[in-house]
Each structure stands twice: as structure tokens, then as C-alpha cells.
Amino acid sequence: MSGVCYLAGAGPGDLGLVTLKAKQCIEQADVLVYDALSSAELLTWAKPGCETIDVGKRAADHKLPQDQINELLVKKVAEGNIVVRLKGGDPMMFGRGGEEAAALSQAGMRFEIIPGISSAFAGPTYAGIPLTHREYGSQLTVFSGHDSRDKASSDLDYAQLAKAPGTKVFLMGVARLREITSKLVEHGADGETPIALTRWATTGRQKTIKGTLANIADIATAEKFKAPAVGVIGHIINEMENIEWYEKRPLKGKRIVVTRSQEQAPELVNKLNALGADVIELPVLKICNPVDKRGFAECVANVHTYDWLVFSSTNGVRRFFDAFFALYKDARSLGGVKIAAVGPGTQTAIEAYRFAVDLVPERHIAEGILETFQNEHNVDSQTMLWVRPENARPVLADGLTEQHAIVDECVAYRIEAEKDDPTGAVERLSEEGADMVTFTSSSTAKYFHELGLPWPEGCVAASIGPITTAKLKELGRKEVVEAKNHNIEGVVASIVEHLGDC
Fold it and tell me: Among all residues, which ones are annotated catalytic?
């Protein structure tokens, strides 16, 4: 099969702003070539075995020069690969995507261009600045503040820019901010014209500063404001007072680490992102197949022979029912077995497979299941299949056996330490610290501490429940915020309560 290169826009930073087509291409890619302005989490969408190449393009630091990037794309496509070239924002908006497309075309290579949302448009929107407004003129001017390093001098026509009506937007201009603003004033622009700069737009690190053409360079210096940022010039900035929204959310400015496995992380990550947190995804464990795959398959095949099916985790639910439907085509093959779930999260996972849940304890831990069986169900001589991971606490099996139930254990998966760090989360946590690290199981606590990372100064641990809290205390964490409701919603609520007004 002949190769192809997809020149894809990676969007401005918020994963939700990446197009469906770009995501589909990433998932199919044999080779993923990305730059420093792409969201690092995009790499987690790539299939196993995909070759990832960081070409690290920034204004002052190119890991690979542009001509070598062009050669790389041609080479990988010529080998018959599906290549995705991820470029921050839109590939054709100051992204040199046109040069890469031309190189592919000249080499006779097949390529497609997938537009993306540029920070030139998304940044102001997330800062609460409308780029067009009938009260502020009907013209929008977009320019780059960074010229090719091959040029001896800027080719920006400051005289034309200064007198252009309406709103002006510029990218890649922070390093030359003082030069840009002074040149505009020198060529006739009013020094009192409002200007706003938004850094890391659409991400949890977003920050906006405001000033005028006359003083914004001094403000940026005082604030240690650096790239990447988008600038907006014009009186339309006054509308921020009415529609600023993104930087007013309860967890704005709070850096929170999520340690769940890559497949489980999105639920918590998305909830924290929606509240404005700067989330660092640092999966410390991964969910793997059990060692005894045959034994697991036999348990699934014989589930209809049991009185009760007990789930103590959402991972167990997914592993069990995926295997069940691989064996059986009819849900009625489950038989008349009743189902118990440790908590509402596990219940929701079961109900996603269209099965009803017969027991959910008030206390969402194994001990809560035992209490509920003891108080509400006579399990004497009842057959029970407990779906669990390897090395699970024996409390459920022991407790149900004490109630004279006949318990079989179905080992559905095992937990291992995650060795890969495709997003660079470890480095970022080490350099930038965090306000809170979240733990949704005792396993996440165990594997996080095995990384040996220094605990960030002033950082607090957030725990999903008492078992996880006990493990954190055992590992030396003194300050632990424990969720009142032992589920993801409870974890989020406890984080907002602890950090929201800080």
C-alpha cells in the first residue's frame, strides 16, 4: 500500500478542539511527527507500535531544521507509512505547512491537509475577546510577529498596520513585543490603544494580561510573560468585562496531577479541565491481562451457574463483560445471576452493558459490600463469583466465606507499573510542582511513590476513600483530602472544596 502524509492541525491546546478527522488519522498513523506546540496528550491516541518523532519546533529552538523535516516526511511516506504531521493550531496559519506540502508534492508523495483551529482565533475567544463586533469595525487583521531567521530585517509594513482599522491579532510576537508596539506607535498608532496577550490559550495554564501599546512591554517583563501567546490590539478588548469566562472557573490556576491509568484517566481529567484546572496526566499504572487467561475465560463462560456476580472495580466490569460478549452473542446467557457493585461508578459501568445492579452498598468499599450482604441478604450456601485483579485484598472472599457463601475468585486483570511517559509529565511535575496529586486507589498511591519523585512543596494528596487514604498515610503523606463520596464525583467535589477558594 502506498504511503500518505496527513498535515494535520493539532489545535491550540484544548484536546476538545482537535477535529474528529485529525483524531482518526492519529489513531491510524504508523509515524507521528509532532512539534512543541502540539498538545502532548495527543500522543496517547496513537496505536501501539506507532513511531513518534519530536521535531520540537519553536521560534528559537528547532530540534530539526525545516529542510530536514521536509526530507523526513518524504522518506517516511516513501517507505509506505501512514504519516501524520501534527502542527500546533492550523498547519497553514504561520505553520510552514505550505512548505511541507510543497516538498511532498515535488517528491511525488501523496498528502492531505487537515485544517485545525488556530490560536489566533481560539485564544481571544477563550480570553473573552470577540474578534468581530459591529461596534468596533468590520475589519480583522492577522499578522505574525516572527519573521524567518533567514531575513535580515522584518518585512512587516508597520505604517499600514498602524493605520489599519478594526482589530489586529498577532502570533509569535512575545519575543519582539517591545519592537512591535513601539514601531506601531512610531508609525501613528495611538499609544493608549488597548492590547491583551493570552499565554497557553485554551489550556489550564492560560493567563491573560492587558495594557496599552505604550506599556504592555513593561507589564509583560514584570509578569515574566513568555511565549507561546497570542496578542489582540484594539478597543474590542473592552468587551472582556462582559464576556470573560475561561479564567473565572473555580480551579483556575491550580495544577493537579492525575495518576490513573491511561484508559481510565479521561473521566477525571475532563471534569477537572472543565473546572479550569491545569491537569498533568501522569499514569503510574496500566491494566494488563491476567496471567491465567484460560482460568479467566472459564469463569466468564460459567457465570450463569452462580447466584451472585460481585464487582469491586470498573476495570473488572469492562474486562469481564468484554470477554462475556466475545463468548456469547445473547445477554440472556448471563442467566439469573444477581449482580453486586462496590459503588456508583462500578454500577454505571455495569449498566453501560445493559445489566441491572441488585446491590450497591452505602459505603463504597469492600467492607460496605460485606455489611450490606450481612444486613439485607442471606448468602448461606449461595454461590458467588468475585471479579477481581491479581493481588487484591482478600477481605471480600474472607468476609463472604464467613457468611457461609461459596466463593470463587475470577482474576480478570493485573496491575503493573507504567514505564512510559509520552507526555513528559514526570519532567513537568518535577520542574513546575503541583497543588494536588490525586489517587483513586491504593495501587496508584503505591506506584506513584515508587517513582521516587520529590513531593512538591505545598502539595496536598487527594484520596478517593479510606483504603487509599490509609495507604497514603503508610507511605508518609501527612495531609490527605479524602472524598466524602468514594467515587470520581466525590474526588472532584473535595478538590473544589479544598482548592476552589484558595
Answer: 35, 57, 172
Sequence spans of domains, the chain: 4-117, 121-248, 255-284+420-499, 288-417
Closest CA to 85 of 58, 51, 132: 51
CATH class name, domain 288-417: alpha beta
Cell of 277: 484546572
d(CA 356, CA 338): 9
Q: Give residue 95's pLDDT.
A: 81
pTM for the full model?
0.81
C-alpha–C-alpha distance, residues 467 and 436, integer Å: 19
Assigned C-alpha cell, 364? 463504597
Nearest to 88 by CA among 160, 181, 12: 12
Please identify every stretch of the chain with a pLDDT value under 70, giving residue numbers as ranges: 1, 37-39, 57-62, 147-154, 501-502
CATH superfamily, domain 121-248, is: Tetrapyrrole methylase, C-terminal domain (3.30.950.10)
All three cell numbers of 330, joined, read 445473547
Q: 255-284+420-499 is classed in which CATH architecture?
A: 3-Layer(aba) Sandwich (3.40)
Contact 52, 32 (CB under 8 A): yes
Structural contact between residues 247 and 207, judged by C-beta atoms closer than 8 angstroms? yes
pLDDT digits (tens, 9 = 90+) for 304-361: 999 999 999 999 999 999 999 999 999 999 999 999 999 998 999 999 999 999 999 9
Domain 4-117: state its class: alpha beta
Q: Where are the alpha helices (DSSP H) in 305-434?
A: 314-327, 344-351, 366-376, 395-402, 425-432
What is the DSSP code (8-state) at residue 441?
S
Distance CA 315, CA 388 (A): 9
Q: 86 by DSSP, 3-state: which? A: strand
Edge-to-edge strand ranges of the sheet holding 207-212: 140-144, 167-171, 229-233, 194-199, 207-212
